[in-house]
Every structure is written in C-alpha cells, then in structure tokens.
Amino acid sequence: MSNNGAHLGFEQKLWKAADKLRSNMDAAEYKHVVLGSIFLKYISDSFEERHEQLQEQVSEWADPEERDEYSMENIFWVPGKARWSYLQKNAKQPEIGKIILT
C-alpha cells in the first residue's frame, strides 16, 4: 500500500465517528465496532490496491474478481458488498446497518 498522504483527514473523520459511537454505546460493544471497522478498512485498502493491479493486467489473463489472484499474494478476498468503497457509497442510506450486517 502506498502511503503518500492521500488519506490525510481520515483520522479526523474516524475520530469524529468514534466520538458519536462512544456517546451511544457501552465501551464493551464499542470496541467490537471500532476494531472491526479498522480491520475492514485495512483489508479493503490492500484488496483495492491488488484489484487495480489486476485490472491493468486483464489482457494478460489476470482476473480482478478471481479469489486466487489475492490469496497467492496473501491478501484477503473482499466480496463486492463488503468492500469499503461500497460501504462508503451507501453510508448515508437508512438501511446502512442492514448492509453492514449482510
């Protein structure tokens, strides 16, 4: 993963979201939500980077939707509706809780 500063501000958004969660739930519940979200963001970043590489290699028989293309690089396969980008697109939807749980 590249760390070129493109994600500056992410920490601030994460902190604001954490403040909202802290006011609405017990710390025992909160840790599961936060740690799960951080883990999903981490594996999604790795997945997206590999996905972009594979899209550039499509003409070379690489398939960006093939699980094995990720596992052979020790990267988690992330299904379409579990990808961070999908969740971001749907974050303002009233059914976001259901989207996350499925």
UniProtKB/TrEMBL annotation:
Gene3D superfamilies: 1.20.1260.30. This is N6 adenine-specific DNA methyltransferase N-terminal domain-containing protein. GO terms for biological process: DNA restriction-modification system. It comes from the Archaea. It holds the Pfam family HsdM_N. It comes from Candidatus Argoarchaeum ethanivorans. Residues 11-99 form the N6 adenine-specific DNA methyltransferase N-terminal domain. The lineage of its organism: Archaea, Methanobacteriati, Methanobacteriota, Stenosarchaea group, Methanomicrobia. The keyword Glycosyltransferase does not apply.
